[in-house]
Amino acid sequence: MSSNEVNLLSISLKQYFYKLKANTGLLNRLIITQMLALFFSLVGANGMMSSGNGTVSVSVRTYSASIAIVFSILWITTVAILLTTKQYKKMEMTLVGNRMSGNLSDVVLLMTASVFAGITSSLVGVLLRVIMYFTFDRSKMVFDGFSLTVSDLLLGMVVAILYMGLVSAMGYLVGMLAQDNIAFLVLIPIAIFGSFRVYNNYFFAQSIYRFYVEDVSLALFALKVIITMIIIFGVSMPLSNRMEVGK
User: What is the pLDDT of residue 93?
Assistant: First the structure.
C-alpha cells in the first residue's frame, strides 16, 4: 500500500468523522420521522376486511410497521441528495482533502446512515407489537405471526440496511446529476415512469422487482445490491470531479 493510499484513507476517515458530528441533527430527524410512522401505523390500520351472513359480522384489521420503512427510505434519499448540494460541499472547503476524499467520506456517511435507518426502522416493528400487546384488547387479537423471532428480526434488519444503502446510492447519483443540471430532477422520474409504460404489463418494472426482491438467498441478494451500489457510486464520483473542473 502506497503512502498516497494511506493518506487518502486517513483524510477520508477524518472528513467522515467531522461530517458525522456535523450531521447528528439528521439522525434526530430520522427518529422523529419514524415516531410519526409509528403513530400512523397505530391509528390507521394497513388493511381491513369484513364479512358476514346477515346474523354474524366479522371485521379484521391488519397493522404493519412497513410505513416506517417507507419513511426511512424517503429520509435516506433526502440525506443522499443533500450531500451533493452546493451548500453542503462548501463545508468541505474548510477540510484538508480533495474531491475523492470528500466523495469517499460521503459514501461512508451514507452507509452509516443506512445501517442506522435499517436497524431503527426494523425496531419500530417491535415497538409497534409491544404497544399493541399492552394497549389493545388481547381477546380480539390474532397472535398467529404476532411474535417475532430474533433470527427474523436480524434478517429484517440486514435486508432493510441493504435497501437503504441501495436507495442512498441512487439518491446520491440523482443529486450529482441535478447539481450538473437541475432538469435531471424532472427528467429522471419521467424517464423511469415512462420506461414502465413502454413495456406491456409493466414488464420492465416486474423484471427489476424480481431481480432485487424475489431472491430466496440472502447472500445472493446482498451480492446484487452491493455490486449495484459500487456501480452507482462509481458513476457518481467522476460526475463530481467533472463538476469541480467545470466550476
Answer: 64
Q: Residue 119's closest CA among 73, 80, 81, 156? A: 156
> Which residue range forms the structural domain that includes residue 136?
3-48+58-180+215-246
Cα separation of 247 and 101, whole Å?
18
**pLDDT per residue as tens digits for the range 170-200:** 999 988 888 776 666 666 666 666 655 555 4
What pLDDT, in 10s, does the model give residues 13-32?
888 888 888 888 888 899 99
Exposure letters 165-197 (e unless 16+ CB within 10 A, then b): bbbbbbbbbbbbbbbeeeebeeeeeeeeeeeee
Residues 226, 229: Cα–Cα separation, whole Å:
5
Whether 205 is covered by a domain: the verdict is no
Assess if residue 189 is contained within a domain.
no
Phi, psi of 48 (to 5 degrees): -145, 135
